[in-house]
């Protein structure tokens, strides 16, 4: 199983709900890069997309694409290509550096809210060593939280017995304070399928156990890397 899939993708839906859907473009890759589309008043907001045949039809089930969003400095992925295809901008947080210059598409900056989408935005991680700039998105009407990288359900994020884990690099000092301000019913992540019920409780458990479960998580991550 490769860490990251290449070539033409093969669409697999995840996280389908009344107002959105997620997908994996390369279901067999170890990284399980997840992308999401969320409908708000007939507008579709696309988060961290990895392109795949059929995603435009997927968007059309919910409405017209209003914007494409980059939630992590490393998640430029296919944001520019998807935005260009739908003639919309790529939205990048005002405090994120370098990302906009690397996108071959018009860019709109956002602050504490994502345009008129109703999403509140906040800094999950903002540091230069090692480089990591990550934005979180919360929609109160949907009780929906999207965390692009700090949390994930893919195997190498999780210690044995965990359903949701903290990114291996953040386990020693997980972003508890900023994330536990929220108590979402639904959580979307950038690697793996999300949590569709009682997500706040799952998130608090993952954050509180991040350090104590660190040895098991690191061993599993190492095994995952060695097997790919």
From TrEMBL:
Full protein name: MBL fold metallo-hydrolase
Domain of life per record: Archaea
Protein's organism: Haloferax namakaokahaiae
Gene3D superfamilies xrefs: Ribonuclease Z/Hydroxyacylglutathione hydrolase-like (3.60.15.10)
